[in-house]
Specification:
Elements (H helix, E strand, L loop, with lengths): L1 H9 L6 H11 L4 H13 L2 H15 L6 H22 L3 H10 L7 H10 L4 H34 L2
Helix pairs in contact: 1-2, 1-3, 2-3, 2-8, 3-8, 4-5, 4-7, 5-6, 5-7, 6-7, 6-8, 7-8
Length: 159
């Protein structure tokens, strides 16, 4: 049970998210289906909070002495992600956000996607749905990749 909690918490960490949590779960030998569900829930839990409050908090903290640099970095990342998404998507912003979150590359997860959606003033409900489907897709990709890697290691290391 503790291992599932660890995986749940890892999936909530910015940048790492479900993309890091699923390989950890597979490496721990946890049930892939339960791990997948737990990682999706953990990755999605902060999304509404990010959409509603992160932008306001980052704007507030960008000029503060100790946190300003980090907050400015986050703001720039969100704005850059938003501009990039809008430039590529045009009217297909929902699909672009879904794919942005769904393709498991560094810096393209639910946190960045939600922050970008917030900066673009996308509809709250549509943003959450696009991010959720993106997280589901990223989870499938990471699960299959992780099982392939760890399955291969088991074959190589088996006596």
């Amino acid at each position: 049970m503790l291992n599932y909690l660890i995986v749940f918490l890892i999936s909530m960490i910015p940048i790492v998210e479900l993309r890091g949590a699923i390989p950890v779960a597979i490496g721990m030998g946890l049930d892939p289906v339960w791990s997948y569900v737990i990682c999706i829930v953990g990755n999605m839990l902060p999304v509404p909070i990010i959409y509603l409050f992160a932008r306001k908090v980052l704007l507030w903290g960008k000029n503060k002495k100790y946190i300003g640099r980090f907050f400015t970095f986050c703001l720039e990342k969100g704005e850059k992600g938003g501009r990039k998404l809008q430039a590529k998507a045009g009217r297909g912003l929902f699909i672009a956000l879904l794919l942005f979150v769904g393709i498991p590359l560094p810096g393209t997860g639910a946190w960045t996607g939600t922050l970008a959606a917030s900066f673009l003033d996308m509809d709250f409900k549509k943003s959450i749905i696009a991010v959720m489907f993106g997280v589901i897709i990223a989870g499938i990709i990471m699960g299959l990749a992780s099982m392939g890697v760890f399955g291969g290691l088991k074959v190589l290391l088996a006596p």
